[in-house]
């Protein structure tokens, strides 16, 4: 490559960069390492298990029945409300207001704990 051609290539690159040609390129958010992802998965599972145990104690059912009543979709934000409805249907009776409040309080603690787990992951 001749000296003039190299100079033209450098000028073209400089013009491209100055014109914002690379502005559309964005950095990718950091991705958790496999160890971080495994830790978060295990911690999330522990949070869910504590929630199930707490709800089982409130309604007097076994862990398996409470787990079966949990909503399938994890994207559902009203897990406590959906769980109360499912448990009432399973039991064939309405839960007391104290039981409902205890389940909703446990759900709030579950959400806060899951949020804390996810806050430690890079890019979150």
Short description:
With 124 residues, this protein is mostly helical. It is built from five helices and no strands.
Extended strand count: 0
**What is the residue-averaged pLDDT?**
85
Output the helix-strand order: HHHHH
Q: Please give the alpha-carbon distance between the first and last residues.
A: 47 Å
The share of residues in extended strands comes to under 5%
* Helix percent band: 55-70%
Main structural class: mainly alpha
What's the overall geometry? Answer: rod-shaped
Task: Specify Rg, calculated over alpha carbons.
Answer: 26 Å
Q: Helix count? A: 5
Description of the molecule:
The chain has 124 residues and is an all-alpha fold. Helix content is 69%, strand content 0%. The longest helix is centred in the middle third of the chain and has 26 residues, at 34-59. The relative contact order is 0.13. The mean pLDDT is 85.
Task: Break the fold down into its secondary structure elements and pairings.
Blueprint (H helix, E strand, L loop, with lengths): L2 H16 L15 H26 L3 H7 L9 H13 L5 H23 L5
Helix pairs in contact: 2-3, 2-5, 4-5
Characteristic key phrases:
mainly alpha, about 120 residues, about 0% strand, 5 helices
């Amino acid at each position: 490559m001749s000296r003039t051609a190299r100079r033209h290539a450098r000028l073209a690159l400089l013009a491209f960069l100055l014109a914002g040609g690379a502005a559309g390129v964005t950095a990718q958010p950091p991705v958790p390492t496999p160890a971080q992802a495994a830790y978060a998965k295990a911690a999330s599972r522990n949070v869910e298990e504590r929630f199930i145990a707490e709800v089982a104690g409130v309604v007097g059912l076994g862990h398996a029945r409470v787990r079966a009543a949990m909503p399938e979709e994890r994207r559902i934000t009203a897990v406590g409300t959906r769980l109360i409805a499912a448990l009432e249907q399973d039991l064939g009776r309405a839960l007391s207001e104290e039981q409902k409040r205890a389940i909703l309080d446990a759900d709030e603690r579950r959400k806060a704990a899951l949020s804390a787990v996810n806050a430690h992951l890079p890019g979150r």
